[in-house]
Each structure stands twice: as C-alpha cells, then as structure tokens.
Design a protein that fits this description.
The structure is a homotrimer. The first copy, chain A, is an alpha/beta fold. Chain A has two domains: about 1-100, Udp-n-acetylmuramoylalanyl-d-glutamate--2,6- Diaminopimelate Ligase, Chain: A, domain 1 (3-Layer(aba) Sandwich), CATH 3.40.1390; about 110-325, Hexapeptide repeat proteins (UDP N-Acetylglucosamine Acyltransferase, domain 1, 3 Solenoid), CATH 2.160.10. Chain A is about 15% helix and about 30% strand. In chain A, strands 7-10-13-16-19-24-27-30-33-36-38-39 form a twelve-stranded mixed sheet, covered by helices on one side. A ten-stranded parallel sheet of chain A has the order 8-11-14-17-20-25-28-31-34-37, with no helix packed on it. In chain A, strands 9-12-15-18-23-26-29-32-35 form a nine-stranded parallel sheet, with no helix packed on it. The longest helix of chain A is centred in the C-terminal third of the chain and has 17 residues, at about 335-350.
Amino acid sequence: MRLDRTVAEVAALLGGHVEGPPELRLAELTSLEDAGPADLAPVFPTRAAAAAAAALAATRAGALLAGTRASLPDLPAGAPPRSVIRVENAELALDALVSALVPADEPPPPGVHPSAVLAEGVSLAADVSVGPHVVLGRGVVIGARTRLLPGVWVGDHAVIGADGVLHPHVVIGSRCRLGDRVTVYASTVIGREGFGFRQDKDGRHTRIPQRGIVVLGDDVEIGALCAIDRARFTETRIGNGCKIDNLVQIAHNVQLGEHCALAAQTGIAGSTILGRRVLMGGQCAISNGLRIGDGAVVGGNSGVMDDLEPGIYVTGYPALAHKAWARDVVLVRRLGELVARVRALEKALADGGTAQGGSGQAP
Amino acid sequence: MRLDRTVAEVAALLGGHVEGPPELRLAELTSLEDAGPADLAPVFPTRAAAAAAAALAATRAGALLAGTRASLPDLPAGAPPRSVIRVENAELALDALVSALVPADEPPPPGVHPSAVLAEGVSLAADVSVGPHVVLGRGVVIGARTRLLPGVWVGDHAVIGADGVLHPHVVIGSRCRLGDRVTVYASTVIGREGFGFRQDKDGRHTRIPQRGIVVLGDDVEIGALCAIDRARFTETRIGNGCKIDNLVQIAHNVQLGEHCALAAQTGIAGSTILGRRVLMGGQCAISNGLRIGDGAVVGGNSGVMDDLEPGIYVTGYPALAHKAWARDVVLVRRLGELVARVRALEKALADGGTAQGGSGQAP
Amino acid sequence: MRLDRTVAEVAALLGGHVEGPPELRLAELTSLEDAGPADLAPVFPTRAAAAAAAALAATRAGALLAGTRASLPDLPAGAPPRSVIRVENAELALDALVSALVPADEPPPPGVHPSAVLAEGVSLAADVSVGPHVVLGRGVVIGARTRLLPGVWVGDHAVIGADGVLHPHVVIGSRCRLGDRVTVYASTVIGREGFGFRQDKDGRHTRIPQRGIVVLGDDVEIGALCAIDRARFTETRIGNGCKIDNLVQIAHNVQLGEHCALAAQTGIAGSTILGRRVLMGGQCAISNGLRIGDGAVVGGNSGVMDDLEPGIYVTGYPALAHKAWARDVVLVRRLGELVARVRALEKALADGGTAQGGSGQAP
C-alpha cells in the first residue's frame, strides 16, 4: 500500500513517537516479509509468537510500526539504522493508517440510474442510491442513504433499512426485511424458498410451500455468495450485529442470536437455533433442529450433530469438546502402538511369561 | 404469517372441525414457541418427539392446528380455554393454509422487457416472460410460459422447456438443455467448462477442451448459487424430478438418476454416477468416478470414497454403513479406557497377578 | 457430440490409421457406455483399469478411438466387425476431435454495448468487448482483446490484462489487478473486503479495514461462484498459471505460488501461503496462517491444520501423510476386534489360563 510519507509524518498521523532516524521517506506499507529498506512494516502483537519472531529477525524493513511494549531484536552489527514508530496499540494504529492511506470506495451518488427498473409503489427515503440495472419489485421500501449497487434485485414488498449497502447482483426475496446499517456483499441470495419436500412412496418429491421470510437485524454483514433461505411460515432470523463470511448456507427457519460470527463455507441446516455470540470457523456443518448455546465456539471444519451447551468449544466430526477431540486424535494416532502392546501381551500369556510392553512411551 | 381469521373460518378453509371456542380471531400463524394467546400454531407429527412435547407443554398459543389422532396435553387448571382445529393430516393442512395466506410471488407479465438483449434466431414460445437485463444468445429456444427473471444469461443454442422459472442472474451455458417445469434459483451457473487440465512435467496446466453439455430433465429444481459443469464431450445429466439445494457443485460428466435430492453445499466429483432416488445430506463430498446405487442415502457431512450399493445408508469420512460408523465413533471415544485396560493387563502380567480390568463398563 | 463423418475421415483428421472397416459413417462421439453401432467411443488409457476393461467388454460402439499400444478385447464370435482408429496418443487425439467438432463459444464482437455504463477515465485497449449491462468504475483499465460478458462489474481503478474473459456477473473489486490471459467464470467475486473483525468484551464485532487488493497472475483460471477476498493492507496473490474450480473460498492475505490447482468447494483461511504447484482435491479446508510447501498434494475433503512440507501427500481431518491416515482408518475399523482381544486377555488372566486371541486376522 502506497505510503509516500516520512517516518516523522506517519508518527505524527498516528500520535506515536519515533525511535531512530525520523527523516526516512517511506515508500510502501507492507508486511515484514515483503518490506525493503524504504518500507514500513507493522509488528503485530497478535501473530503467532514463533512466526512473528522469525519474520522480525529476517525483515529488511527500513521502519517498523510497533506497540510501546513490543520487544524488538537488536539489529546485526553494521546494519543500517532502523526507524521504529512506537504507538500505544499497534493494531488500532495500523487500522488508522490503512484508513488514512486508502479511503473506503467512493459511494455512488444518490439518485436512481435511468437503467434501473422500479415497479409501482416503490418507496425510496432520502439520498438513496439505486444503481444501474437494479430491479425493484412492487411496494419495496428502501431506507435513507442506502445504496443498491448495479444489478441488485429486490422482490415485492421487501423492506430495507437505512444506511445499508447491497453489493452487485444481490438478490433479496419478496417480503424479506433488512435492518439498518446492513451490508450484503455481491451475489448473495436472501429469501429463496427453503429446501422442503414431501417424498411419496415412489420417491417423487413434492414441494412444501415455503412462504415465510428472512429477517436481518441491524448492523448485520453478510459475505458474498451466501444463501439464506426463507422460513416455511415464520422467519429465518439473523440477529443484530451478526457477521457472516462468504459462501455460507443458512437454511429455512434457522435463527442466529445477536453478534454471532460464521466463517466461510459454513452451513447451518434447517430450524437450528444459535444463541448469542456464537462463533464458528470455516466449513462447519451444523445439523438440523439443534440448539447451540450462547457463546459456543465451533472450530473450523467441524460437524456438529448434537445440541451445544453455552460457552463450550468444540471441534471434530462428530464435534466434541475440543480437549476430548484432541485427545482422541492422539489416541488414534497411537493405535498401531496399542495393537503391538496387545500382541505382546497375547504372546507373553501364551508363553506363560511376563509382558514386554508398558514402556515409557505408552499413552 | 398474518392470519386475521377466526378459528371457525380457518377450520372451514381446511375442512377441519373445532374443539373449544370457535370465535377467537387469530392474528398470526406462527410456531408453538412464538405464538401468543391470539395466534395459531401447528402441531407437527413429524417433529422430534421430545422437543415437540416440550414445545407443546410450554406454548402460549391460543389455538392449535393438529391431526385428528394427535394427543394434546391437558391445559393447566385455570388456564384460558384453547381452540384446537382438528384435521385429517396436519402437514397437508398447514401447506394449504400457508398457500392460502401467502400466494406464490406474482409472476412477471409475458413479453420481452425493452432492456433485454436478444441475439438473432431466438425462439420464444407463447407467453414467455423475458425480464429486464436478460441476455439471450443466438438460436436460443424458450418453451411456453417460461419466465426469465432479471439478469438471466443464456448462451447460444441453449434450449429451455415450458413452464420453467430462471431466477435472477442465472447463467445457462451454450447448447445446454433444460426440460419442462424446471426451476433454477438465483445466480446458479449451469454449463461452465468442466475442470479438466493436463499437467506437464513442469507442473503447468493445459486445458482439456470441455465441449459437452448439461441436460436437466423435467421437474428439476436447482437451488441458488450452484455450479453444474458441462461434460467433456457427452452430457452431464440431472434426471427427472431431481431436487438440489443451494451451493452444490456437480462436476463434469456426473449423472443423477431420477428423483435424487442433494442438500446444500454437497459436491459430486467428475464422472460419478448416481442411481435413482439417491438422497444426500448437506456438505457431502463424493469422490470422482464412483457408482452410487439406487436409493442410497448419504448422511450430512459425509465423504464418500467408494461405490455404494443400492439402498445403503452411509455416514462418516470415509463413509461407512451408518451403524458401523456409529459403532466406530463410540469405540474411539472409549479409546482412553481401552488403553487403561491394556496398561492394567501389562502391570498384572508383570506382577504375575491377575487382571483388574474387564469391568462392567467395558464395550 | 454430433460427429457425422466416416471412420476414414476421422482417422485422416487425427492422423491415425484404421483397423477394420473404414467406410462406416459415424453419428456421435460418445462414451463406451452410451455408444451404439453407429457411434465412436474413445478408449482412455488413464481410466481406472477394471472399470475401463468392463466398459470395453460391454460396449456396443461401432468404432473405437484408441492408442497404438492399447490392447483391445477380441469381439465375440459372430459380432459385426468393429472399426478402430489407432492414434499415437488417444487423449490428445480426443481433444483435437472434440475441438474440431464443437468450436469454442463464438466470442462477442469488440466494442461497447450501449447498455454498458462506463465511469470517467476508463481505458479500453484495442478490440476490447464490453457486453450488455456491464458497469466499469472510474479509471478502470482493460487490456487488448479482453471480453467482459454481460453484467460484469469492475470497481474503480482496477486493472485487467489482455486476452482475458470475464464471464457474466463477475465482480472485480476496486484497484485489484488481473494479469494477461485470465479467465474468470460466472458470478465469481474478487476483491471483497476480508472477513476481519475486532470483538469487544460485550461480543460486538467492529470491522478491521481491509483496503489491500487481490492480484491474479497471468494464465490464471478461476471457476464460477468463487470468492477471493482482498488483503488487509497488502495483496492476496494468485500466482501465474493457477487453476481454481467452482465455489472456492480464498481468504484475505492468502498467497498461491505458480501453477497451483484447487478443486471445487475448497477453502483457504486467512494468510496461509501455498508454494508452487500445490494440488488440492475438492472440499478441502485449510486453516489460517499455514505454510504449504511446493508440490504438496491434499486429498479431497481433507482438513489441513498444520504446515505441510514440500511434496507431501496428505489426507484426512486432521490431515496426515496419506499412508499414516489410511493405516489409521484401517485400525479404527478393527477397533471392535481389538477390544475383543483385550477382553479375552482379561478373561484369560482372571482364569489364570492362557490367551485365546492373537489369531491370524490380527493387524
């Protein structure tokens, strides 16, 4: 990221102080690994300790951004001097620097693009932006300052709150409701009919009508290419403050409490109810009809097949308390050794002698 | 779901009879959990027994929709009377009520929107609807009454049957063929070139041309955000009556027999052939080149790495007959105990004594 | 695939020679399974031996396309004669035949469709094609002969190389950069803000600004419905020659070396770095912050939770060296037997007798 400022200027911007030469003109803000003598790299307190130490020892960065308490290695003898910008909180300072260097994408201007197609009864609040090729159904309501980027489609009588952003090609089904300050990234599909069928004795599937809706609370963010299906006759609900990554599947009648976060490619099957502040890693598969307690944490790639109590941390497939799963993984890895021990016991007993196993490496 | 009818009116609509007061005006059709004294909630015979009983015991619903043979708990002494609408089949009655309360989305009118772009030789049968921003390639054929919603793209010489619905932004590749009464939900991509490459000794990949097609049978439903790739030189085939959920991947040359159903995020690798009426849960991964027998059932999140015989029910990764997998899960969970028993045997033998293990909790 | 040529004509086209009757007029190029007496079917040297032999023994194909060294079964006595077109390399000959029979989709003509919307400062090189309903942001640069299919959206100041193809509804975020000869299939989303939040003590998530970019090298192919997120302040990088299948998730700050190939539905979590020529099967889940060595191979449906050394082949969850995982799978499958052996030992020791286990089927 283009920087083009001196060390002293960056320090002033961030309210930090400088150790070492302040006059160096910095070309780029980049990583410890990529930085050269004219670049600035941040030292993250949150990065895994060993990897961070190695990167720090090897970096050629001319300047570092670091917390006041971060300990930095001595430079090798004869190395050129390095500038360090010390700040109270390196993570927050980095955010401020990034935001200063590259502003958010410029919002489209308010107004309705002439290529947009609005059905009768659409209601647009102040300063709404309706981009090219957007299509809005009958009676759609859009709150103040919300921006609909190109190709967005909104079904009849859907209601979208204020200060939202729907990225290109987002689809919002009829009658669904989005709160205020909701961001939905590109090509996400909200409000598809749920996947519900009745199978007859010949194996044919007949659709069960799914005419409920999806409700997203305030301050919700949904990634790109997600599918959130409408309920059968009630509401699929995403609570206030929930954050969902890309390619996530939320089936019909699922409910998420406030402030949940789901990483990419996770799927929640029908009617499962998550409490508040539930966290899930990527590519988790959650069975239908479960209750997931407040604050439960599901490690990446886990398959949850039973209810989870509040605050538990689970991993694996089927998912278990993390420590139990990690122990089982180790025990399975040592199964060959266990088989050998049993074989030794069998031989010893057959020989009428004593066991040879039970060595120090036994679990 | 807004109801605004009396108990008697709903009973008449569904051909049911009323137990308790018939004159209550019902506000909403909702779940046992959400219903209040002015609401109607259905009692599902298919819901898990324990959860259903608990919800029923705790509901505040003023009226219930239940099957004639459903047993309902007595109300607590002093509780206000509750109305029950008894019907022959509560599931079917609920479908009828849902459909009566909320009709399906109003279809777009027949005709071609002026913003649509049609190449030469497009053939539209009677009453086709081509929505805004649709793009149709050369020689595309669309059957009677089929609706193409905004932003649909159809490649050259593709053929789409009658009475279909392609939701916004669906992509149908050149020459692919869709049967009658096919629904494809938003942003699904049908007919991408299959993922086939030849790797040279330097690791570079060269594309293997994939110029076959995708064929969807009649009465097929494909969810949102699915990818169904075209065959190398034959056909990727989805049989009549198949139902596919969101975010599903169907690779080149895959074949599905009639009436299969695949839940969300499942992926089928290249050239695998499914028989008829195969059912798969969500997020299954099926290897390439397999044969999956008629009526096989694959539990959610399973990884199938071998052919499956007809009618088998498998789960796990690698997938096994469900009972065998469930047994293995239990045995792994008891591995720590088994290790302790082996250690006790080793000690007993070393001591020249007798074993202490083999207790009642042994598997 | 329609053929409509004689055996001799096909042989001439492919530079092969004919065994058996050359004058047969071939109707279709199809598979051994589907072919009839008037059809041509290829005999793949790469197909699994047993399945290929069975298909070959059962085929009704009137003509075969086979390598010069492929051994073919004798026809049953009294069967009509079969033509065989012998070629040096059956795979390459098949590619040539497929390409001759069905040319690639006809490219759209150069020029800007009147329904496209271009912001100020867009730069289009020679013979660029900008299709219907495309939207290009400020200062976007498109290289020579690149084709933007309908509904593509490109953010401000993004740069796209020459000879590329962006399929319908592709989204390219602001400032992202694509090399030459890049193909991106339909509805893929490149350059979304990475999924990064800071959680406060009340569980609320605050966005960490993600203002870096995505860089795709030359000769990259990205499937349909993929998400590749932009870096926090540097670059998410996809190396030259990488090939990515459908529905793949690449998180912020991930880097892929040259010539990697990732099959469908795989996900790579944040900041993980892949070396060159890494291969991954479908639906793999790779944890964040890992280093995956050059030439590592990850079997389908695996979950990688640790760094991988160059050249290793891993499978499973958590992923292990393939042989170790395969051995563990077998050992788990035999756990019931091991438990029985331990029980027999316990009984023998309790009885003061000798063990009955240790039979021939023991692992």
